[in-house]
Structure formats: C-alpha cells, structure tokens
Amino acid sequence: MKKSLLGALFAVVLSGASAAPALAVQAPDAPAKKPAPRAVNFAGTVALSNCSGSVVRMPDSQPGDPALVMSNGHCLEGGMPGPGDVVVDQPSSRTFTLLDAKAQDVATLKASKVVYGTMTDTDVSLYELTTTYQEIEQQHGIKALELQDQHPEQGRAITVVSGYWKKTYSCSVGGFAHELREGDWTFKDSLRYTSECDIIGGTSGSPVLDDETGKVVAVNNTINEGAEDCSVNNPCEVDENGEVTVHKNIGYAQETYGIPACIGEGSKLDLDAEGCTLPKPSGR
Q1: Confidence of residue 211 (pLDDT cuts 50, 70, 90)
Q2: Contact assessment for residue 192 and residue 255, using Cβ atoms and an 8 Å cutoff
Q3: Strand, helix or coil at 266?
Q4: Which of 17, 73, 156, 258 could form a disulfide with 119 if both were Cys (CB 3.0 to 4.6 A apart)?
Q5: pLDDT at position 192 over 50
Q6: Superfamily name with CATH number, domain 157-255
Q7: CB 81 within 8 Å of CB 72
C-alpha cells in the first residue's frame, strides 16, 4: 500500500464485371468504426509530497465549481485512516504540483479542505481547491480529468499515470476482486491489473485512465509484493464464499464510478444523495 492506439483502416476492393446487373444490389451496411483512442498523457495529473493524484471533475461539474483533486485515502497528510474511519470536510492547506501533457510542472495548486477520505471499502481522498475548473483551464490550459460514472469493463486497455514519478504504466483490466484484504483494511470490488502494470511506491493515488475514452475509471492504490499473508503491501483476494486467492506481483486500483453520485452542485459532498454508496462517518 506504499503505492503509493490506433484506429482501423478500411479498404474496399471492387472487381469489375463485363455487364452491369439489371437490378442494383444494396451493399450491406459497413461496420461501425470504433472511435479513435484518446492519447493518454500527464495533463491534469498532480504530484503530492508522498503520492500521485489528479484534478478530477464529475460528469455534471460546472466551470465555476471549485476544482477537486483525487488521490488515495492512505495519502492523507494526517496519516492512514483506520478501518471504519471516514474523514469529511476537514480544513487543509495542502499543495499539489500540476503537470501538463509533457509532465512539465506548470503550477502549484492549493487545497482549502479535505472533502472526503477513507480506507474503508475503498481507498480514496478528495480535496477541494481554492481555484475553480475554469480558472485552472484559463490560467494554465489544463482541463480536469472526468470520472466515468459506469463500472469499468474487464479487458479494457488502461493506463496508470503517476504525477509523482512522471511515469505511466499501461496494461488491461484483468478482473475484479470481490474483496481485497490488506493488513487491517478491506476494499470492495477492486480492479485488478494485468501484470504489465508493475506499479511502485509513489504511484499511490494515480488516476487509472481508460485508453479509449480518456476517462478515469479507478484510483491506483496497491500491489502484492510476493507474500501470501494478506499483510500490508501483500493484498489477497477473498471471494463470495470466503476463499482466499493471492496474485503475486499483481497491482490493484479502487473503482471510482460511484463517486459522481456523491458530489453535487458546487462540488459539494452529499453522502445522503440517491445512489451514493461511499462509506459514511460513524454515527450517520
């Protein structure tokens, strides 16, 4: 847990005949072309003091809304939340280094508060910035990355983009873990990478982008380093029947498609909103 494309070319070849047919024959519909994948780059990612992150927007976010930065719960400046702990609306003056497409530092962004943070069921933190999406785009030419609001699909090509290391890792969605246990923490419905995404410390909190859409489908958070004991840095999977499986040297991310339902107008957190399933603070 220290972790912290090409389009298709079509050709039609027609062979001539000595006489035209009496009746025109309608050609079958051409197969629909898949949209060309977006080029994944570093624009919108950030570097924290100990982790990676990204400036993210919801599908319904407005230009004048305060911008949000997403990272891991275990990257919070106050330390890792314990099992069951949920941090909501806590003041913060944390800073983030904003990167452009070529991984060059373009600005320092500042938080006003921690909107949300937890390591229960997921591993995520959201910071509200002192600047809006529109201000960041106008001043630095950087657009926020959009969170996908649908469950990611197995087999999709993805890229983990680390602002801390200014490095990318490309692989595919290998599958999903019903439960991922690591030390005292349990994460639910985690995204499992294929082996090419051999993430390292400092990549924690990196956005996981769908290569075709360019949208964020998860937030990178951990990798098994070779042990089979479900300890910190050695997560194990537990299925619906309680059977434990260990995928040595395989990394994981926490899905983010459920977050948009919890963020309302003005980037405000609403854990009681319809469809919001993020864990709530104890007593709520």
Answers
A1: very high
A2: no
A3: helix
A4: 73
A5: yes
A6: Trypsin-like serine proteases (2.40.10.10)
A7: no
